[in-house]
């Protein structure tokens, strides 16, 4: 900021006027990867019928069974807003009549220790404002549901997609909740749910527009069914959830900062090592993390071997193979064991490490 823009008359010693810094608060966005720029697992995941992470930090979540879906990182974005990518959710198998207990929503789960400044459960509880850009061929009413998992409380707001295949910006404000504090820990406390379809168990009541003890029937009243046709698709980008009653401009983060925040919950590591033929024919290989993870992660493996871009595997020079075994894990590193009865054993591939909420 140029010195000529500083209001010296209103400054106190060693402090900038609040009006000059209000729009520059770092990390005001509670949502991670709201610009949909990070997709460590790959740019597209198809044939989804159950809970699946695709783009970083966002989960396509199901109760029951409602259609089949593809989730992809897409370059369709609102013009002139600074976004390069969006999430596209495409219905590939329709379900025109969901069962009463079926539902589908796109969600981000948020750690309680990142939410303490909201003062939830006190008389000073902060309001929350959610802003985002959305587009779909399926017009009508959609529901956003905030769910407090620590205290089984919820609040929902509706928004309308008015014009087919047209980007629209939405802003929704949720009152602060004076009942029930978020846990101050690394477990999930708040769910930010974008409903895409729901059966009558979730739509037959009265929409919970104020905080209440969670009642399923009040969660998604009025929600359209995006699953009713394979022609349906839904896009979203620029998701920002922040304290206060007004939406600020989207907080764009440097790519390295955004990636690092995502790697707290998921990261991958290339593995290429050999025991050199030394007996016994197994060894422990340590993988140090790019950043501390939320909790000791789980390791994903698969049965295929031979691809540097696949999940991590162990194998032998004679063509045998066994799965990589997790020996020990912490929030900073894991040890994995691989090996066979062959003279020479090796590890080659990519380890997927997850500590998602």
Describe this structure in words.
- By secondary structure, this protein is mainly β.
- The chain has 2 domains: 237 residues, Galactose-binding domain-like (Jelly Rolls); 90 residues, Immunoglobulin-like (Sandwich), CATH 2.60.40.
- The chain has 2 helices and 21 strands.
- A 7-stranded antiparallel β-sheet has the order 2-3-6-11-8-9-12, with no helix packed on it. The protein has a 6-stranded antiparallel β-sheet with strand order 1-4-5-13-7-10, with no helix packed on it.
- A hairpin with a 4-residue loop joins strand 8 and strand 9.
- The N terminus is likely disordered.
In short:
The chain is mainly beta and 357 residues long.
Provide the number of structural domains: 2
Radius of gyration (Å):
23 Å
Helix content: under 10%
- N→C terminal distance: 39 Å
The CATH C-level name of the largest domain is Mainly Beta
What's the architecture of the largest domain, going by CATH? Sandwich
**How many runs of DSSP E, i.e. beta strands?**
21
Q: Main beta sheet, described?
A: 7 strands, antiparallel
The structural class is mainly beta
CATH superfamily of the largest domain: Galactose-binding domain-like
Q: What percentage of the residues does DSSP assign to strands (E)?
A: 35-45%
H/E series, N to C?
HEEEEEEEEEEEEEHEEEEEEEE
By CATH, the topology of the largest domain is Jelly Rolls
Shape, per Cα inertia axes? globular
> Widest sheet: strand order?
2-3-6-11-8-9-12
């Amino acid at each position: 900021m140029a010195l000529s823009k500083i209001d010296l008359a209103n400054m106190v010693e060693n402090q900038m006027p609040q009006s000059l810094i209000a729009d520059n608060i770092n990390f005001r966005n509670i949502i991670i990867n709201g610009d949909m720029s990070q997709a460590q697992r790959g740019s597209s995941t198809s044939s989804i019928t159950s809970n699946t992470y695709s783009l970083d930090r966002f989960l396509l979540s199901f109760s029951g069974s409602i259609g089949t879906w593809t989730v992809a990182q897409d370059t369709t974005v609102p013009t002139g807003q600074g976004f390069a990518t969006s999430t596209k959710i495409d219905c590939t198998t329709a379900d025109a009549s969901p069962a009463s207990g079926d539902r589908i929503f796109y969600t981000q789960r948020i750690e309680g220790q990142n939410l303490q400044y909201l003062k939830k459960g006190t008389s000073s509880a902060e309001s929350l404002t959610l802003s985002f850009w959305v587009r779909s061929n399926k017009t009508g009413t959609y529901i956003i549901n905030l769910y407090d998992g620590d205290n089984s409380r919820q609040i929902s707001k509706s928004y309308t997609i008015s014009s087919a295949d047209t980007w629209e910006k939405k802003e929704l404000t949720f009152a602060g909740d004076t009942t029930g504090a978020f846990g101050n820990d690394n477990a999930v406390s708040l769910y930010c749910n974008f409903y895409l379809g729901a059966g009558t168990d979730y739509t037959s009541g009265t929409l919970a527009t104020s905080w209440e003890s969670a009642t399923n029937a009040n969660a998604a009243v009025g929600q359209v069914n995006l699953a009713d046709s394979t022609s349906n698709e839904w896009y979203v980008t620029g998701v920002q959830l922040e304290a206060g009653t007004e939406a600020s401009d989207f907080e764009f983060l440097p790519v390295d900062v955004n990636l690092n925040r995502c790697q707290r919950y998921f990261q991958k590591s290339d593995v290429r090592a050999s025991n050199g033929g030394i007996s016994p024919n197994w060894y422990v290989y340590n993988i140090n993390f790019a950043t501390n993870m939320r909790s000791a992660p789980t390791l994903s493996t698969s049965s295929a071997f031979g691809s540097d871009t696949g999940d991590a595997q162990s194998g032998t020079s004679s063509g045998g193979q066994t799965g990589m075994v997790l020996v020990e894990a912490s929030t900073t590193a894991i040890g994995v064991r691989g090996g066979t009865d062959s003279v020479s054993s090796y590890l080659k591939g990519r380890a997927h490490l997850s500590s998602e909420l």
